Amino acid sequence: MSILYERDGPVAVITINRPTVRNALDGASAAALAQAVRRFEADEDAAVAALTGAGGHFCAGADLKSIPDGTGPRVEETGDGPLGPTRMVTSKPVIAAVEGYAVAGGLELALWCDLRVASQTAVFGVFCRRFGVPLVDGGTVRLPRLIGQSRAMDMILTGRAVEAEEALAFGLANRVVPEGEALARACELAREIAAFPQTCLQQDRMSALEQWGLGEEAALANETRRGLHTLSSGETLDGAQRFSAGAGRHGRFDADPGSQGETS
């Protein structure tokens, strides 16, 4: 299978499993990746997903060898993105676990994720620059938003490689970890996030995502609307009662989301 879906308790692990082509995606595997993300979205027992690649690389983008024979990713203005989920807005966070190359469309997949945990081997870059392949999975939109216009333009125009430590300094990577540990550390982070009250976390996350398309007044109103949804859920009252009972003192975050495995 080109895309694997595994769940360990509240964490879904989605793996691009095409290591012989550094996890580059053709049309069929891009569609399978989109389906895996939809499965995560529908999985009520999964609070956070980790997206990774098999064989030491995250994703090298589109499989260029599939384009001449007509089996490459579909590129149209409507429907899923060429590499699958890049036009989706999930209600739950996704963390990229990056070993090796996250380049071209693979960079765009990493940008689509909420957070990026990169190993010391990670390399980010618009490597498609040299082949005349455009960024059509959100790269020209999300990269400037994440790291600023000047740094984004440097990457977009030159196609140069950005290694892990520079990516961390840019804000492109959120964590840098030893080689081979990206997935484990991403899953650890995912479990920490899954342990928080989820209605509040999801509503705050959506407000942060939605504000990009809104003016300040509308964005503030939307933040309040989503906050009211959390308040009406009872989650805030429960949290206040736990606080009054002594929970969370001195910055402690004690929670056990449980563990339940599922693989396919």
Radius of gyration: 19 Å
The neighbouring-strand order within the major sheet is 9-6-4-3-2-1-10
Structural class: alpha/beta
- The tally of strands reads 10
Distance between the termini: 9 Å
Number of helices: 9
In the CATH hierarchy, what is the superfamily of the largest domain?
2-enoyl-CoA Hydratase, Chain A, domain 1
β-strand percent reads 15-25%
CATH class of the largest domain: Alpha Beta
Counted up, domains total 2
Note the main sheet: 7 strands, mixed
The run of helices and strands is EEHEEEHEEHHEHEHHHHE
Name the CATH architecture of the largest domain. Answer: Alpha-Beta Complex
Spans of 5+ residues with little confidence (pLDDT < 50)?
Answer: 256-264
- Residue-averaged pLDDT, rounded? 94
Helix content: 25-40%
* Envelope shape: globular
What CATH calls the topology of the largest domain is 2-enoyl-CoA Hydratase, Chain A, domain 1
Region (Disordered): 244-264
Family: Belongs to the enoyl-CoA hydratase/isomerase family.
GO molecular function: catalytic activity
Protein name: Crotonase/enoyl-CoA hydratase family protein
